[in-house]
Amino acid sequence: MVRIYTDEIINAVCLHISERRGVQPTDVEVQLSWDEEYGYTAELWVSGRSQYLIESNLLEAIEQFIYSHYNRRVFRSDIRLGLNEDEGEFWADIVG
User: Domain limits of the chain?
Assistant: First the structure.
């Protein structure tokens, strides 16, 4: 099992969005969140515009990040997101 934390999840989203939008990863700002109604989401800003990602988008970004940085092919069903609310720390467990 591999566990990645908030910083790597944010890096995964930045790399994923920068590739899709044709911008530099440093041009993407990301804020992760969780609530009972929507689950895990991210608000991101690119070129002054805001966008929300839902959990499936986060899983897609993490899936690609794990493949490119850890050389492991995983599927979204292999990724479990979690949050330590006391510390505000997000994590993703990758099993399989």
Answer: 2-94
Is the pLDDT at 2 greater than 80, yes or no? yes
Q: Which amino acid is at 79?
A: I
Please tell me the total number of residues recorded for the chain in this structure.
Answer: 96
Can you name the residues that pair with 32 across neighbouring β-strands? 42
Amino acid at site 8: E
For the whole model, what pTM was predicted? Answer: 0.94
Mean pLDDT score, 3-14: 98
The CA dihedral of 75, 31, 51, 92, to the nearest 10 degrees, is 10
Q: Using CA atoms, how far apart are residues 6 and 11, in angstroms rounded to an integer?
A: 9
Segment 62-72, tens digit of pLDDT: 999 999 999 99
Output the six-digit token pair for 91. Answer: 């994590």
Measured distance CA(7)–CA(90) in Å, rounded: 9
Q: In b/e form, how buried is each residue of 55-81, taking b as 16+ CB within 10 angstroms?
A: bebbbbbbbebbeeeeeeebeeebbeb
